[in-house]
Amino acid sequence: MNIVLTGANGFIGSNLICKFKEKKCNVMNLSYREDFDININKIIDFEPTILIHCAWSGGNNYLDSNSLDQYDKNIPNSIKLLELINSIKTIKSFVGIGSSFEYGNKKDKFVETDIEQPVDFYGLTKTFFKTYSNIYCKLNNIEWTWIRPVYTYGPKDIKTRLIPRTIIKMIKNESDIKFNSCQSIVDYLYIDDFTEATYELIKQNKNGIFNICSGQEYKVKDIILKIAEITKFNKNISFDESDDIKKPNYICGDNAKIKKEILWKPKINLEEGLNKTIQKIIL
Fold it and tell me: Does domain 2-153+188-214+256-268 match CATH 2.60.40.10?
């Protein structure tokens, strides 16, 4: 397979490249910040069959989730990327990386047939482009796949996210680490399981919307305490319920569809994944 991919410097994109190279695929990185037309001849010569769109500005920071930049910095270039496909006649498939935040606040595990009800601009903008790209691909006879990760973690993760941030603090043996109440229930999936599922979706030519998640439920507080146990952190950890951040308190997905479609299931449990992540953290 010859694959063109945006977002190669991001957590998901960089790990997907590693997976594709492991599987002997050819991958071309396409910069999301450049004028795509500059690379048109180079892309044509590469003869890609699949375009994967991972790049997304402001997707890694909760504080950016309601910025108007979610639209301005993502949608025009994403639409231009779709239009580029029609100039590259060898491209037959488009794969977009969405988000669980398209579903909005849920009290039960979300499934692919749920109606999207985003509650922030990040989820809304992802939902908009999901719909736009789907219609565009249908009109132009391009196969379309939309992947919704829940929470992925592992080596190369953004250091400001909960798991790597907590690991770094504990490896540094910082004293008096403070958190909010950490009562949220979330679904975490190790990045190698995510990339393997994505590869199989592409290899088996599966189209439509897919949640890629562990299907498990973890309390955030328990994850923090597990990291403390693995790193042998023995200083004070406090959880302040009065300082809780207003975030969705239940973010868990149903993975029955992808397990059935490609006969996939996660191989790495949370403790093993945390151990692998801790071993590769670079301070």
Answer: no
